[in-house]
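@channel sequence for tomorrow's demo:
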Amino acid sequence: MSSGIRSDSGMHRAYGGRDSFHPSTARSFVPSSERHPRTVPVTVLVPAYNEAETLADTLLSLLTQSVAPQEILVIDDCSTDDTSGVAERLGVRVIRPERNTGSKAGAQTFALRHVRTALVMAIDADTTLASDAIERLLPAFEDAEVVAACGSVLPRRVQSIWERGRYIEYLFAFTFYKRVQEAWGAPLIASGCFSMYRTSALRAIGGWSTRTLAEDMDLTWTLYQYEWKVRFIPEAVSYPIEPHDFHFLGKQLKRWSHGFVQNVRLHRQGILSVPFLRHSVAVAFWDAIIASVAYLFLLPVLAIALGNPWLLLGYVIDVPAVAVPVLVGAARRREMRRALLSLPAFFVLRTVNAVFFLKATWMELIMNRTFATYEKGH
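structure tokens (generated this afternoon):
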């Protein structure tokens, strides 16, 4: 989840498997002029603020795709590090706004005027792609009504408890939930870290909005309200760097939680006019509230009041429902051991998610205090 309401102009913030791109690829990088891949009418936008440390991996994964995008644009959002230099040394065009835009959404919309292709792809500067990711998304646009397509997302690093929890969370979502949504013709979100769009549709709605802290959700729901289609292509895989410690996890969850609530409030009228979106959002919002209250209050209160610690098993009663799709997805990737070792971390992360979601709901809907600062870090 992510669109960004504009932050203070001086606020510094970073945007931020087996077949993923690895930094060692840089040593064997073959220029596209020698590989002669087929060029496709896609412009890739890479918003970046102080991303010199991760940008090279992202760009090299783009430059070594099975098909070559017509152009890659790095939007250096007034960085104070060597972000521009990294891009220029790899032969990638850099554009720079006069002032920091304050959000990923702002940087991408600034770049939209420079796009000359029928399709545009947005990717975070800390995200790498499987070598055929762009090629996998292209067939979705053979349907003239499709204006956006997204793929699967998996953490590039799976080491800390938070990365392991996110690994399971993503495997579950992209093996089960997202596929169900695709079957309904209604992926809830075209992920902001890696999605492709029809340029004309983006321009028709003014690009990425900075109205909320979840620009990808805002954009996806807006496209549905225009009666356009969004597709999920599970075979197109991206690998972002997820928060490795609680400090950065907290920033991410705060942004995601507030962004979701902000979008529900912003789109409540439009959601009602789109049946599948209305049902999906209602179920997601209701489930998040009920689950959060149960994890944080109901289970421990009942266990103490009734003197029955066995009630605490409610925290893991749905292990089979989570584990089955996760292990199916892990088996396809030959990552069973990683999945089994990571499962406990998911239930820790889920409890933390509940804290942030309830707090965001209370602040946004009850206290009417909107959180408007876009923050992200590694």
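heads up for whoever presents: The mean pLDDT is 88.
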